[in-house]
Design goal:
mainly alpha, Serine Threonine Protein Phosphatase 5, Tetratricopeptide repeat, 77% helix
Length: 281
């Protein structure tokens, strides 16, 4: 589906919602892409119905390759929840059963495998899988997957204490991202802000975190990640701007109560990032 591969999730979702329900029920591929669009758009409570329609149709056909795509999307859901072992298992199952020429879904599966390993703290395995995701997606021109894998690789490098490598990786994401891939840019800016704070370069830390906040303001994507405000409040406190730091803390508390903050993945990442930076310099 070209619109999905180009990162035009909202456009795809609107187009599919205009189709008659009878059309979706008879076309499992459309149901599958509709489920993807709903999941990526944070309408996770709605994506299960079209996904089940696609799954039942492909089960009746004994279509192993298509059912492997179901493993990919379910792997993305559990990855959002930071369920490491479930993510790894679904990604491995998908890689086993996907068609060899299904490079798009294989790229996502490698990304999920690397993400699952990073959540589990297995940095060597995570690095191998993420590099495979980057190589696969670079060859196929799937920029969204390549940037997501590259950004995740920067996070893994942070966990290893390889801060200079992480900076280069995040810079690559920020240089190549465009207006379709806001979430990768937010994450990369947060990583850069945290690293520069560890290096006591508070001006650079503020600048990168301000960039993440501006993307949040423009798109609303950052409200999935209250730890953006946690990191910004920490930098503001170190610069002596206590009033602004308190305001950021209040903003974080408000966002914790919003409906988007139901998954544990980003909190898991924020906590690990903070621990990795303790004593770093």
């Amino acid at each position: 589906m070209p619109m999905f591969r180009q990162g035009r999730y909202a456009t795809l979702q609107v187009w599919l919602e205009k189709l008659p329900e009878s059309e979706l029920q008879t076309k499992p591929d459309l149901c599958f892409w509709y489920a993807w669009a709903l999941l990526i758009s944070d309408r996770r409570e709605e994506y299960e119905q079209p996904l089940r329609l696609a799954e039942r149709a492909w089960q009746s056909q004994a279509n192993t390759h298509k059912l492997a795509q179901i493993h990919v999307i379910r792997g993305m859901e559990v990855y959002f929840k930071a369920q490491a072992q479930e993510t790894i298992a679904l990604a491995q199952s998908a890689l086993r059963d996907l068609a060899e020429d299904d490079r798009f879904n294989r790229g996502i599966a490698y990304l999920l495998l690397g993400g699952g390993y990073s959540v589990a703290g297995k940095v060597a395995e995570a690095t191998t899988a993420l590099l495979a995701a980057c190589a696969n997606s670079r060859e196929t021109g799937d920029l969204s997957i390549e940037l997501a894998a590259t950004e995740e690789l920067g996070y893994v490098q942070m966990l290893q204490g390889k801060l200079c490598d992480a900076v280069k990786t995040y810079q690559d994401v920020l240089r190549r991202h465009d207006n379709r891939f806001h979430n990768q840019a937010i994450r990369a800016n947060i990583g850069m802000g945290v690293i520069h704070r560890a290096w006591n370069d508070l001006e650079a830390s503020r600048r990168y975190l301000a960039s993440a906040l501006e993307i949040d303001r423009q798109t609303g994507f950052g409200k999935k990640w209250p730890w953006l405000h946690v990191e910004n409040s920490r930098t503001l406190a170190l610069t002596g701007e206590m009033e602004s730091a308190v305001a950021e803390h209040c903003s974080r508390s408000a966002r914790l109560s919003c409906s988007f903050c139901i998954g544990g993945g980003e909190f898991n990442r924020g906590g690990k990032m903070a621990r990795a930076m303790q004593g770093a310099g």
